[in-house]
Amino acid sequence: MTIRPISAETRAAIADLILLREQFIKNRLIFVEGARIIPILKVLGATDKDLEKMKTVSNTLRDDPTLPFRKSKNGRFYFDFEQSQVRRLEYQPFALSAEEDFVRHDSGQTRKFQEVDEDLQGNSTLHALLVFKALIFRGVPIKQRPKLNYDTENFVCTLFNLRTVTNKDLVGEPALEGVHSDGVDFTMTTFLGSENMTSDSAVTFVHDMRAKNALRWDEVNPVHTMGSYQHRDFLDTLLFVDHERKHSLSPVHAVDPVCPATRDMLIFFTRKPVVEGHISHPYDSLNPHHSLPMRVELA
C-alpha cells in the first residue's frame, strides 16, 4: 500500500482545527473568519464548486411561518458518534419555549418550516461544516439543560437556512426576540452573504446568563455583555455553548432604502435528544428521512 504524504496545507488546517478546539474549550466560544475556515473545510471535503454554489443556495427559500421579514427552510440531522456519521432525520415540526430562554410572540408555538432540499443537503460545504462542528464540540463538558438525555453520546442538529429581509415596509430582525438562548447545547451561525446591507448591520452581542430575556440588543446592561461579533465575509462562523451564553442581534439596514437588503445565514442548533416533558418531545424522532436521505462519515 502506498501512503501519500500529507501536504503542508493539510497539516496547517489540522493544526488550526486543533487550536480552535482548544480555544473553544477554554472560552466556550469561537469566531472563525471565512478566510480561516475555508482551508479547514476543504480538508474536510468541501470543493471549490460547492463553495461557490453555497453563496446562492438561499435564493430558493420560502416564506417563514411566523416572521414576515424572513425566508426560511430547515432540516434535522443526527450526530451519531456511536456510528461515526451524520445522517438526515425525518421531518418534524419545530417548537421553542420561554422555558428555554426564548421569549417571543411565537414562543411555544408549533411551527412548520419548508424542508431543506438537496441543493443545500447535497453540498459538500454543508457536509464539511457539520464535520467541523462535530470535531469542535464532541466531548466538551458543558452546563446541562433540563429534560435532555445526557446518557447518550449522540446529538440532534436542527439546521436553519435563513434570509432576513429589510424593505420599505419591514425592518428585518435577525433576532426579533432580543436577548435569548436557543434551547440547545451548541449554537453555530455561518454567514452565506448579503445584498444592500449596511456595514453596521446585524451585529451579534454575546451576554452572560444574567442578561434579562427579551431585552433589545441596545437595552442590555453593558456589564452583562461579554463581546460582539459581526458576520461580514462568506462563511464567517460563530460557535458557542448555548446554555452558558445568551445573545442578541441588531437589525438589518439597507444602504439604498429603495431596494431590499438581505442577509443569508446557516444556523446549526445542536442538542441532546429530549426526554418526556420537553416541549419538543412529540417532535424529536430519530428515524431517517426516507425521501431525502443523507449520510456523512465523521471518521
TrEMBL record:
Protein name: 2OG-Fe dioxygenase-domain-containing protein
GO molecular function, one term: dioxygenase activity
Organism placement in taxonomy: Eukaryota, Fungi, Dikarya, Ascomycota, Pezizomycotina
InterPro entries, A to Z: 2OG-Fe_dioxygenase
Pfam families: 2OG-Fe_Oxy_2
